[in-house]
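User: Structure with coenzyme A, tokens only please.
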Amino acid sequence: MADDLIIVGAGGFGRETVDVVEAINAAAAVPSWHLLGLVDDALTESNARRLRARGLRHLGSLEDLLALEARPRYVVGIGSPLVRRRIAERLDAAGFSAVTLTHPQATIGSEVTIGSGTVVCAGARVTTNIRLGKHVHLNPNATVGHDTVLGDFVSMNPASSVSGDCVVEDEVLIGVGGVVLNQLTVGAAAVIGGSACVVRDVPPGAVMVGVPARPMEVNL
Ligand SMILES: CC(C)(COP(=O)(O)OP(=O)(O)OC[C@H]1O[C@@H](n2cnc3c(N)ncnc32)[C@H](O)[C@@H]1OP(=O)(O)O)[C@@H](O)C(=O)NCCC(=O)NCCS
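Assistant:
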């Protein structure tokens, strides 16, 4: 029987996560997930319309979810690593447990471990001897090279690429089309801008842009 599932966040990635769930169900002989609906504290009118058009239910706020007696499985479909962490920590503390979702059109190679709460979208490529932490998002066409470790709550936006032998620490966000060259470490909570190419280790919390990537200038 399919397990009940709730997605937290009805924005872009939340609804892309619905696509992943639907594709997993369509590919299985028996559907794996029964999607109860989406939780969103600040549902916009346009996202409400998008949910209605797909026949998806808005189940209220995070507080409404926490107030349920039942404990459906969950996944957080929110792109911000920090927001994702805060929500996952509250839900885990309340006895919920996260699921791992991999789109059937992603490819996962050999000796790969994937943490709970991680969502792997269509076209993502994960090769060999790789560890993906908890609540990682691999957006469409993201690629992770051999022997690389992604920490918890890492977001790889569409078409971003981390090469072999890299360490990407917790809560890093790699923007659309961002590239990390091989054997580099990206420090915790760093942001790699869209289309940047990282060629040196990145300190924690840095925001890097350009080719080669340099710290973003802050105009005070
Ligand atoms: C790097 C980033 C986080 C900076 O965000 P921000 O602080 O809001 O930056 P701003 O938009 O205010 O831009 C500040 C300056 O940096 C420049 N800049 C912003 N992003 C840049 C990037 N990726 N590469 C090069 N320059 C960039 C802007 O042109 C601007 O320069 P200016 O002051 O000379 O005009 C953001 O632009 C980015 O690339 N995010 C990733 C987005 C993404 O992946 N989207 C897909 C979602 S699925």
